[in-house]
Amino acid sequence: MKKFMKWMPISMMILGSMFMFAACSDDNEPTTPEEPGTETPGAKVSIQLGYESIEVEAAGGSAEVTYTLKNAGTNPKISGTSDQDWITDIQAADGKVTMSVAANTETANRTAKVTLTYSDDEKNAASAELTVTQGAKAEEKFTITIPGESGSTWIPFEIQPKDQSAQYFLNIRPAEEMEGFVSDEALFNSDMSTYQQLADQYGMSLNDVLIATNALVSGPMEDYLFTKLSPSTEYCIYCYGVENGKLVAPVSKVNAATTAAAPVDNQITIDVTNKIASSVAFTVKVTTFDAYALAIFDGSASDAEIESALMGEDVSIYAGNQQLSLNTALEVGKEYAIAAIGRAGNTATTKLVVTRFTAEEGQVVENLTLDMTALAFDGDELAAHLGVDDLKGRPILFNNIETNGTYTLTYPVTVEELADLRKQVEEQNPGEEITDETLYAVILNAFAAYSSPDRQSLWLASEGSWVVLSMTIDEAQKNYKVGSVDIEVNENTYSPVEEIDKYLDLNTSKVLFKKAGNLDVKAAAAAVKKYLDKKYTFKTSIESQSMIKSMKK
């Protein structure tokens, strides 16, 4: 079974300037031109270069060196040639010689001679030579290959790192976009821009965000695909080493193109596995990795209307098998249709597939139970016990929930954050009774994106006093129950790491925040006020929409 990587559309900074190099080698001192007016009448014409040799980087670009003419005649002209074809477009004017230097794709330095030739109306002649040394391309740490033919929406690839333990960032862009990056650093900064925004937003380091979002991989990748691409387009697949949020290895690249859009033999089937209106879930099975459009529709829509919508704009494109759930509640007793069609660009590549169903009411639980446990651990000890290096270097909070409810939300906040929030809420709502249940429920709903939906979660924390807030919700999402556990996090309160084995299962998540709190007090206070003013309704979805996704152990 092939594995596939999603193309991550990342905001791009296009830099268009060329590099300019004019560095002096250690073995050559710049010559000193004579002062104007000191030329000897009738003396021989000469070209005096500011440097006899220059060095340029492997990336190439534009290079220049200054020159002075001695005893020049009428209408002087200078032309330039090189003994190597990687130096072109040699121009001399106004005391500067400029040239274009191609990138060095070899792992050895190379040298070229640039010859400047002088002429004038008096038929004087002179010449000068400039030595240009270009550095070698850094040895690539990764080998990227295209093992077979591409499809109209996918390209196969394999990566073999020289260091099997090295972490690296992998991405794909249209080849024409890559032309705008003048250096590896420019490409790295563009790729990291979105992740840096997340780091700033959540108070995390860039490295923590890269780990939490699974943006870094390690080891060889064999039999993989990039999917959901545009047909008849040339792409560049590339990767580079990243360590502690820094670029540590040069970019390795390979270009490959998708084929033209055409019908494919992709058998698509849709099975609704949960018809409960508040939590509809379904699976999509396919026989190839060709892209398809997928959406849910009102049951009254005809097949022709559905197909037209799926071939329009602003529809979700998928590839491969999917297990999906809706993040909004449907109407009980109403008919709906989940539909898919193969799509490459604006071309339909398969027939339309439609599965219709009626949304059902979920189980209502009147007497919800919520039993919570919170433990604090030394991160280094827990990392060794679980074999998860990402937990090293800071305290870890763990929560476990036992409930007869269907869904849960958990969010640890500091005692200081909670006290600050309560103060602001009371100031904004004088005379209102603010119960813990109301405060905690609004926090968990308003910040569901930051919360964990799992019944056991690991949180990166800091030493101090914490309150772990949790909520359980029944299947119909009619009733909920809120609870909290106070816990001190310091070396005196750490539990033995073996204690976690009583609760831990294979579904435990690591919710990687630098600080498990980071509560936006101002936004939370505003949400509480809206609730008290009867203008706020709890979210019907219990799915976390956070860009920082949980990672399964």
Task: Tell me about this structure.
- There is one protein chain.
- This protein is α+β, with helices and mostly antiparallel strands and 553 residues long.
- The protein has four domains: 3-14 and 139-257, Immunoglobulins (Immunoglobulin-like, Sandwich), CATH 2.60.40; 31-134, Immunoglobulin-like; 269-358, Immunoglobulins (Immunoglobulin-like, Sandwich), CATH 2.60.40.10; 370-552, no CATH class.
- Helices cover 15% and strands 38% of the residues.
- It is built from eight helices and 35 strands.
- The strands form eight sheets. Strands 2, 4, 6, 8 and 9 form a five-stranded mixed beta sheet that branches. A five-stranded mixed beta sheet has the order 3-5-11-10-7, with no helix packed on it.
- Strand 17 and strand 18 form a beta hairpin.
- Helix 2 crosses helix 3 and helix 6 (415-428) packs across helix 8 (521-532).
- The two termini are 22 Å apart.
- The model is unreliable at 6-40 and 536-553 (pLDDT under 50).
Give a short overview.
This protein is α+β, with helices and mostly antiparallel strands and 553 residues long. It has 8 helices and 35 strands. It has 4 domains: 131 residues, Sandwich (Immunoglobulin-like); 104 residues, Immunoglobulin-like (Sandwich); 90 residues, Immunoglobulin-like; 183 residues, no CATH class.
Specify Rg, calculated over alpha carbons.
32 Å
Q: Given the helix and strand composition, which structural class is it?
A: alpha+beta
**Average pLDDT for all residues:** 84
* Amino-to-carboxy terminus distance: 22 Å
Strand elements, count: 35
Number of separate helices: 8
Silhouette: elongated
Residues in helices, as a percent range: 10-25%
Sheet-strand content, in percent, reads 35-45%
Spans of at least 5 consecutive residues whose pLDDT stays below 50 are: 6-40, 536-553
Number of domains: 4
Specify the biggest β-sheet.
5 strands, mixed
